[in-house]
Predict the structure.
Amino acid sequence: MGCSSNNATAPAPAIAPGAQRLDPAEIARRTRIDPRIESLAPGFDAPFFQAGLAGYSDAAMRIIARRLGCPYCVTEALLDRTLLAGGRGFAKADLGELHENVPGGVEDHPLAGQIMGSDPDEMASAAARMIERNPPADRGFAAIDVNLACPVKKIKAKARGGHWLREPAGAVAILRAVRDAVPPAVPVTVKMRRGSDDSARAERDFMTIFDAAYEIGCAWVTVHGRTVEQKYVGPSRWSFLRDLVRRRPDRLIFGSGDVWSAADIFRMIGYTGVAAVSVARGCIGDPWVFRQARDLMAGRAPAAPTLAEQRRVLEEHFRLAVAVNGERRAGLMMRKFGIRFAARHPDADAVRQRFIAVRTIEDWRAVLDAHYPRAGSAEPAPALATP
Ligand SMILES: Cc1cc2nc3c(=O)[nH]c(=O)nc-3n(C[C@H](O)[C@H](O)[C@H](O)COP(=O)(O)O)c2cc1C
């Protein structure tokens, strides 16, 4: 199940007293990308990106996001030992937690490869191998992102992902090993949660790892405002991100958690001062969030996708998913995505039920034919843009 969790909460506001009073359109108009980001990852030209999302953010989802304005993507967390074993084979040996994740060629760039594991040497070798096989010069990985955030339980009593937050010395050893193993020109970045839990000790451990990351030479840290204990339940604490940015104003800090719309991207920037925002569950089934974010930055009203456009994107996503995963797996993926895309349809509940009932690719196409007109044909009013 990777880093996912089926107890994820429905969209809810973050802990950010006063953020609802901010004007996202006004913040968007005056927001520019921090020039340090573009110099570290050329092409990362807007202050938002698509998060790593295990089971979703494969090359097909990433390319769809990019075509709609997403400037930067992160792969799902890839296990170090799986990478060292060379591919799919290891998935079975590790509780099936790896999903194959393919860099999608020239269009899928810039892309961070995210790694996760339990041993500094294995993490370092895996990171070095990723860059050797897919060097930035060949439009491979533009950065290596180290996952210290995944809440999935420990494997054989060994820490990995977010469980490192309770073991700061081990977390720092991993960051140092990976930074040393990756060529200096390639940024190493970190994904962390705001702590393992709500204790004072957890906050101290967070700060130890966070500060060490930059001292070691990591380029930025993306902080998810939930604790590991919280998994995906309950609100993300944007007030933690705001305080962190105030305490460390010179650091490049990115934010994650409870970003459900283009407006939320700029609310988070306005409220916390982070340099870029990770869009995660908010873009599953809504890749238009990236176009809408660019609209807001250009001073335009965010355009909602028409049903014909939703159909075009679903079909395009399907074609890419077949190319990346083969037809059988693409069918499973597109059922999952269809269920999420349905939220943009004026008849959302009915369309969602139809996607849930899909068993074959033919069923999937039948839902499209029944509910999504082709371009040029008459259609009902589009779903409203997300707030
Ligand atoms: C299904 C699912 C899979 C995820 N997989 C990853 C992952 O592989 N790597 C990662 O850094 N974060 C992963 N995350 C965490 C998200 O990137 C993000 O930090 C989190 O969902 C909080 O943002 P949100 O509340 O806006 O969704 C995952 C989250 C979900 C719901």
Summary: Strands lie at 48-50, 73-74, 78-79, 111-116, 141-148, 188-195, 221-227, 253-256, 276-279. The chain has two domains: 22-297, 307-371.
